[in-house]
Specification:
By secondary structure, this protein is α/β, with parallel strands linked by helices. Helix content is about 35%, strand content about 25%. Strands 5-6-4-7 form a 4-stranded parallel beta sheet. Bound molecules: zinc ion (ZN). Zinc ion binds near residues 8, 11 and 38.
């Protein structure tokens, strides 16, 4: 089973749907069996948008004078910079904020990032709120 976040191109409604495979999704879409729950438009597309990104401070310590690690670190920093510029930092309130975006359907609100416990992540997942866990490192050497 695959869960896709779908978007209605007519009314911008976002919703989740389960499919047995990506092929099934394509088939249903082509045959216009996919409909928006709100306006019934068959104009549905898959989105790769992730509404919330979860930040984790608990990353293992790695030797820093290692070229491979430096490379990886650079990529992580770039990722972090992007998140910092495009997402709102909510700190420990992550679970609360993620829920309020999810349930109040704040389409225009920025994505958020922050920290949450394993239990909170599990609860959010059970409620159908997708989060993404990324490594987070503090920029304190250079
Ligand atoms: Zn619609």
């Amino acid at each position: 089973m695959i869960k896709y976040k779908l978007i209605c191109k007519d009314c911008n409604n976002l919703f989740d749907s389960w499919f047995s495979s990506s092929k099934e999704y394509e088939k249903l879409r082509k045959q216009k069996y996919l409909n928006c729950h709100i306006c019934y438009s068959p104009n549905i597309e898959k989105t790769i948008m992730s509404p919330s990104i979860l930040r984790s401070d608990n990353i293992p310590k790695v030797k820093i004078n290692d070229d491979k690690y430096k490379k990886v670190k650079k990529i992580i920093y770039e990722h972090q910079k992007f998140i910092e510029n495009n997402f709102k930092y909510v700190g420990e309130n992550f679970a609360y904020e993620a829920r309020s975006i999810h349930y109040e359907d704040k389409k225009k609100s920025k994505g958020i990032y922050g920290s949450a416990s394993k239990e909170e992540i599990k609860e959010l997942k059970e409620e159908g709120i997708e989060t993404e866990i990324i490594p987070w490192i503090k920029n304190n050497n250079n």
